């Protein structure tokens, strides 16, 4: 009789079964890791190739703000005397440049200047090119340079860059305007996301 203890067949079978379970668990963990890596790589590739650059880029080359106090003439449409009325407004001018970097035409539809005050965002649509010129007729002493207006109903061809000035008017005092922050301009295009640009230089107060 051998001095070495013989293992019962049942214990041998249980040990072998345990090894198989361990091997199976290891394979499952390894497969899970590989799957996670592959999924992460696929997501990364999709994000890299699926993200297209914006169709439009641009910059605000300069901005001016001019506070204007205006009073009515004191006469109505029939020439009758009436009490004068006054109000404050701030004209905001922006010399902008827009570039179409896509392979399709861009249709500019409007622009809006935005500023954040204590009670929320205040926005004012930019005037048309014709009304931009009328500002200088209404206020001959306007200290802001009278440049070429940017048409807000224009088509920008692929690769084309357009440049011009827009103006918006805010019904508020200069003190309220000075309290604003996060000044920017929103350009709206047909069938494309809007482009938001912020000035990179200080606003010139005139």
Please summarize what this structure is.
With 206 residues, this protein is of the alpha+beta class.
Overview of this structure, please?
By secondary structure, the chain is of the alpha+beta class. The protein has two domains: 1-51; 56-205, Immunoglobulin-like, CATH 2.60.40. Helix content is 28%, strand content 38%. The strands form two sheets. Strands 3, 4, 5, 7 and 8 form a five-stranded antiparallel sheet that branches. A four-stranded mixed sheet has the order 6-2-1-9, with no helix packed on it. The radius of gyration is 34 Å and the shape is elongated. It starts with 8 loop residues before the first helix and ends with a strand. The model is unreliable at 1-5 and 42-49 (pLDDT under 50).
